[in-house]
Amino acid sequence: MRSSRWKQILETRYFKVVSLTTLAASCLVIGLVVASGINWTRPSVAQTLTAATPETLAAPAARPGSLAALTKRLSPSVVNIKVVKVEKVGLEQPQLEIPEGPFGDMFKKFFQEMPRMPKNYRAQGAGSGVIISQDGYVLTNNHVVEGAKEVTVTLADQKEYKAKVVGRDPKTDLAVLKIKSSGSFPAVAMGNSDQLQVGDWVVAIGNPFGLNNTVTCGIVSAKGRVIGAGPYDDFIQTDASINPGNSGGALLNLQGELVGINTAIVAQGQGIGFAIPVNTAKPLVPQLIAKGEVTRGYLGVNIQSITPELAKAMHLKDRKGALVADVVPGGPADQGGIKRGDVIIAFNGMAVEDSHHLPALVAATPVNQEATVTILRQGQERKLSLKVGQLPGEKTAAAKPAHPAAGKWGLQLRDVTPQIAQRYHLKEEKGVVVAGIEPGSRADEAGMQRGDLILEVNRQPVGSVQDVLEKIKRSKDQDRLLLLVERDNGKFFVPLEQQG
Q1: What would the pLDDT profile of 115-146 be if each residue is shown by its tens digit?
Q2: pTM
Q3: ∠332-333-336 over CA atoms, to 5°?
Q4: How far apart are CA 478 and CA 275, in angstroms?
Q5: Can you name the residues that pair with 370 across neighbouring β-strands?
Q6: What is the average pLDDT across 147-165?
Q7: For the segment 176-218, what is each residue's pLDDT rounded down to a tens digit?
Q8: Which pLDDT score, from 0 to 100, does residue 115 have?
């Protein structure tokens, strides 16, 4: 009886062990099958994800690979320029009152033996340039070769040639040289700098610190930079390293085209360099080669940018365009019907963004060419036709800067008499002169000065203090005043506004 019971217990335990073993084996098989399935399907899932995000494949292509081939092809087109200038030295032996006695004799001997600087001495300079034609014309910066008596060009293969400055344009800081040789030279193709976008890769090649054929790479950081270098500032900003000696060197796109001439740096900054767009140079190079100088178009207007206060005072919808503050009598603009107070919003179909933009458009237009000028006059758009003149002398079509304007006026006015005209150096003995400015007033904050001549009030001419007072009294808006002011032969608008 007891033995049969133990047998029953053993059989039950054996059944449980076998069942657990079978279950474990089954789970192991199922796990292997599942794991095998996951391993087989994972690549297809990854392929699906890759196909769904094609930008992940395009991203590496957007970055430049090796620049070795590009550099090898283009470096021979960039040259090192060495110049010799002969400069005068204004130092002379000092004229001193020498005392008598033994000390006087000592002083005389000292000054007689003092070495004197020569009146003229030879100064050397260096920069870079880029060959733009196979017959040896080189484009560089004006400041590299200005005043040069001797110019030597060294190619990448260390061959040296004498060169001649054939043309310079200080306003854009461009110059053209001609290598004195009948040989053929490796020239770079000119690109289109207007097509550059912020973020595009660019390559700079030059000779910084005399280190020949140095290549750096970066991106276009900004376009249209105005750095105060001249009236036609329109620089490309790049973080490709530019250093002293790079001036006149090439800024190239990844297609190997010239898109800029490296020109300026910010000495205290890092990764901030500036290049002249090649599209600025294109129309100037033929003139520099043929005539040695540049002839620019001329409108004969004095313009200023539209501040928020001016836009409000003149009821303009936005601040785009160049405000005409004055028109030169008999000039192209005058003959074409442009008037003071007009806003030039387009020139030959090209939009005028601000007063800085217009002079460059006009200057690039051939003299005597017919041009269409789109203006806003009293809120109405008009198109006028005129013939572009020639920029006289060193004058420019650039604007006199507008003075800041804000708030209520505080003016002391006087009628112009012969005595007043003499005191304030006025050319005419008529009109209304600002005899004083109340400190802290709106006129003071607007930058008005004693001696300013007021020509108009709210777009209406005035000839006396009484006229000014009447125009102010009749104004529909007693909290705003728009003045046309003349100072130092220049005219500009000044809006004044009373703030509540």
Answers
A1: 555 555 567 888 999 999 999 999 999 999 98
A2: 0.59
A3: 85
A4: 49
A5: 387
A6: 91
A7: 999 999 889 999 999 999 999 999 999 999 888 877 788 999 9
A8: 54
Which of 242, 211, 245, 213 is CA-nearest to residue 125?
A: 245
Q: Which of 404, 172, 409, 435 is nearest to 284 (CA)?
A: 172
Give, as one character, the DSSP assignment of residue 406.
-
Neighbours of 379 (CB within 10 A): 10
Cβ-Cβ contacts under 8 Å for 36 (sequence gap 6 or more): none
What tokens does 454 get? 């007021």
Query: Which residues share a beta bridge with 178?
Result: 137, 164
DSSP 183: S
Compute how many other C-beta atoms are within 10 angstroms of the C-beta atom of residue 221. 18
Lowest mean pLDDT among 19-33, 141-155, 456-470: 19-33
Choose among 362, 389, 357: nearest CA to 373. 362
For position 441, what pLDDT does the model report?
A: 76
Decide if 173 is catalytic: yes
- The question of whether 357 is a catalytic residue gets the answer no
The residue among 424, 446, 419, 422 whose CA lies nearest residue 435 is 424
| Residue length of the chain | 500
239 has catalytic annotation: no
* Spatial separation of the C-alpha atoms in residues 255 and 215, rounded to whole Å: 15
Cβ atoms of 483 and 494 closer than 8 Å: yes
Q: pLDDT band for position 346 (50/70/90)?
A: very high
Catalytic residue among 75, 77, 128, 143: 143
In angstroms, the Cα distances linking 455 to 124, 277, 449, 461, 463 are: 53, 41, 14, 6, 7
Catalytic residue among 128, 193, 221, 247: 247
The secondary element (H helix, E strand) that includes residue 494 is: strand 490-497
* pLDDT tens, residue by residue, 259-311: 999 998 877 777 788 999 999 999 899 999 998 988 888 898 888 888 888 88
Residue ranges of domains in the chain, CATH in brackets: 75-89+116-179 (2.40.10.10), 193-291 (2.40.10.10), 297-390 (2.30.42.10), 411-497 (2.30.42.10)
Q: Write down the residue that tokens 């087989």 correspond to.
A: 40
For 202, half-sphere exposure in the C-beta direction (CA atoms, 13 angstrom radius) is 35
Residue 112: which pLDDT band, with cuts at 50, 70 and 90? low
State the Cα–Cα distance between residues 265 and 243, nearest whole angstrom: 7
> Can you say whether the dihedral through the CA atoms of 268, 271, 272, 275 is positive or negative?
positive
Q: How far apart (Å, rounded) are the C-alpha atoms in residues 355 and 341?
A: 13
Active-site residue, from 169, 173, 326, 342:
173
